[in-house]
Amino acid sequence: MANAMHERVDAARERVINEVIPALLEAFPGKVEVIPMTNDRIPQVYVASDVHLPVALWLKERGFHMLVDITAVDYYPKREPRFELVYHLREMPAQDPKGAKGLGMIRVRVKLDEREPVHTLSHIWAMANAAEREIWDQFGLNIVNHPNLTRILNPDDWEGHPLRRDYPLRGPRALISLEMPADENRYHPFVETEPAKEGE
User: Fold this and answer.
1) Are residues 86 and 109 in contact, defined by beta-carbon separation less than 8 angstroms?
2) How many CB atoms lie within 10 A of CB 97?
3) CA atoms of 48 and 100, how far apart (whole Å)
């Protein structure tokens, strides 16, 4: 049984490499670049940020009904553009009208500058809603047209985006200039209070 599943996954991978990706290259000439596979053997492509949304629709129309996950990477200061959005998409057999397909997987990577807008995919895959909020919360990428782009992991009044590689290791407190090194470990109230009056 396990061997049959492995054979089906291997066949699906070959079909993504030999059929889906060549068709994607033909549909978006000059906007898609094939990347060599890594040890996980998932076929992957770079997609230009201006066709990120049409490529997502194109893949869903061809059976990639499941958005497995989204993540982001910050390559600062080693690379420009410094950010990448990374999507993992899977074909779902039950959604495949031809039946024989399914279980194929593709990784789509999108390079982004710090303020470059990238369209939400939450209207295509509902799972993207929370994942894109998390990416914005942690990396501060400019995701546009999201229905509710608010903090999801950090408090609402959190300053900055803590998974950026240039984020201070101790958070906003690291930006406070101290008069003396010994002040570092003293209690620093976030809210200034009036000193207690005599008799209170």
Assistant:
1) yes
2) 6
3) 31
Q: Report how far residue 177's alpha carbon sits from residue 41's, in angstroms, rounded to the nearest whole number.
A: 48
What's the average pLDDT block by block, 10 residues per block, for the chain (200 residues)?
78 93 97 95 96 96 93 95 96 65 90 94 96 96 95 92 88 65 59 60
pTM for the predicted model, two decimal places = 0.81
β-pairing, 105-112 vs 44-47, is parallel
Per DSSP bridges, beta strands 118-119 and 143-144 are parallel
Q: At 88, which helix (H) or strand (E)?
A: strand 83-90
Angstrom distance (rounded) from CA 94 to CA 92: 6
Spatial CA neighbour of 146 closest among 125, 124, 129: 129
With CA atoms as reference, report the closest residue to 163 among 82, 51, 109, 59.
Answer: 82
Tracing tokens 């914005």 back to the chain, one arrives at 136
Tell me the chain's radius of gyration from C-alpha atoms: 23
Separation of first and last alpha carbons in the chain = 77
